[in-house]
Structure prediction request, 211 residues.
Amino acid sequence: MSDFYKKILDNNKKWVNDKLNQDPNFFEDLAKGQTPPLLWIGCSDSRVPANEITGTKAGEVFVHRNIANMVVHSDMNMLSVLDYAVNVLKIRHIIVCGHYGCGGVKAAMGNGSYGVIDNWIRHIKDSYRFNKEKLVAIENEDERFNRFVELNVKEQVLNLAKTSIVQTAWKNGQELSLHGWVYGLNSGYVTDLEVNFSKNDDLHEMYQLDI
Prediction:
């Protein structure tokens, strides 16, 4: 058994003991069910932990993560998470959270080939193509990279709003707000991009489904 593997097993035991010392009923209460107010769609990057960033407890955040925090309409994994969160858990907020320095976004800005992930990154390349004029006008490479991270998050929030799952919830009068954030790895702070959707009318009419 490797030292790291043994360490994480030991960490689990310590975590359980610490929680029980704080609250003897912690796990018993947790097992009764979940009513999280938030769905977090974030990057798989190991440095971007949803609960720690938001200071939330177990049971408060429903989480979906993938490379570069993408909302792809053909991704049944994401759609299943979204459907369960909206229609069963009745979450009230969805945050798409990207992060500066995202490797997936960086890869989409170039022409390198990385294997199977190329197929996933192609979706990000579409966002780059849509915003190419804005981006090439930014001379500083780091600033251009950061701006594309932000634009990619905004595009994914829009993709969420386009889904029939979200629009049906709005049509039914369900309280549901979509937000876009970017996390700073070197600071710990999030930037609210102030891209928010909370009703069908927030969408361009061509995307409003006749539900």
Summary: The mean pLDDT is 96.
